[in-house]
Design a protein that fits this description.
By secondary structure, this protein is α+β, with helices and mostly antiparallel strands. The chain has a domain of about 160 residues. The protein contains 8 helices and 12 strands. Strands 1, 2, 3, 4, 5, 6, 7, 8, 9, 10, 11 and 12 form a 12-stranded mixed beta sheet that branches. Helix 5 runs antiparallel to helix 7. It is globular, with a radius of gyration of 19 Å. It starts with 7 loop residues before the first helix and ends with a strand.
């Protein structure tokens, strides 16, 4: 069986897509051969799908609320539902434990799929390029359900579903999500300090979307990445170094994050200058 289809989480969870009818022709409903069933291809413009859309907002709030960056409902609609698409995994409500339903705010009369993860991306003017907007996973709150790796899996399959060839994303220097993003290979820095963002200590990164990048991130044993040795390190609180690095980027220098920092935060984020 194909590596992706045989993944334990793929076999145990239900995939879903949120996309308007107008945007649906541009989205692959069977990424890597993983067929999203018709009932789980959800048009956010239909009133009947409001409860599911509300659960996505609850998932976002559980993930980003503690960091102070949850999305308002209008942001979901204007920036996600209408221009972009969402891919994720969940479980039929009948298979979701009561404690999990309480965490995610599932109404007693809800009958559909309960979202456990989602990846949101928005197409850009550059053909084939998308901007990653949001990666959310309830896995850290449900250690007993053995969902480790759900965030990486969701993002990997989402990028294939959306048919992109070049990816842009943004995260904070101290974000644990950086460990997920670097699984797709070395990340080229677009910005190192971003005052246009509400969190200035945000980095913007990019990479080419290839089968190897996606399968490698999911742990395919036949894929490996060339990760150059680091020569620069940025501490997540060192604003001056971020500003200096941003000035070098604006002057034409290029840098990559070759691999993830240690999860305990004891080692700063590693970088390598590209020749």
């Amino acid at each position: 069986m194909d590596f992706v289809l045989d993944h334990p989480l793929v076999r145990s969870l239900t995939p879903f897509l949120v996309v308007t009818d107008a945007n649906r022709p541009g989205v692959n409903t069977a990424p890597f051969g993983l067929q999203v069933q018709g009932a789980n291809v959800i048009d956010p413009n239909r009133m009947q799908n409001e409860p599911f859309c509300a659960l996505l907002q609850n998932l976002d709030a559980r993930t980003f609320g503690p960091e102070g960056m949850p999305m308002d409902r209008w942001v979901f609609y204007d920036c996600c539902f209408m221009p972009g698409a969402i891919f994720g995994f969940g479980r039929p409500v009948a298979d979701v434990p009561a404690a999990t339903r309480a965490i995610l705010g599932v109404p007693d009369d809800y009958t559909g799929v309960v979202p456990y993860s989602m990846y949101i991306a928005i197409p850009m003017a550059e053909p084939g390029s998308w901007m990653g907007h949001n990666l959310a996973s309830i896995a850290p709150m449900l250690p007993h359900e053995n969902l480790k790796g759900l965030g990486t899996l969701t993002k990997s399959i989402a990028l294939r579903a959306f048919g992109m060839t070049h990816f842009y994303g943004a995260t904070q220097w101290d974000s644990s999500a950086l460990h997920v993003h670097v699984k797709f290979g070395p990340l080229e820095l677009v910005t190192a300090y971003t005052p246009a963002h509400s969190e200035s200590k945000t980095l913007t990164y990019a990479f080419d979307v290839t089968d190897d990048a996606l399968r490698g991130a999911m742990g395919a044993p036949d894929v490996s990445f060339d990760r150059p040795q680091a020569e620069i390190w940025i501490h997540p609180e060192d604003t001056a170094s971020m500003v200096g690095l941003q000035s070098r980027i604006e002057s034409g220098e290029r840098f990559v994050i070759p691999y993830a920092p240690r999860e305990d935060g004891a080692v700063p984020v590693a970088l390598r200058r590209l020749e």
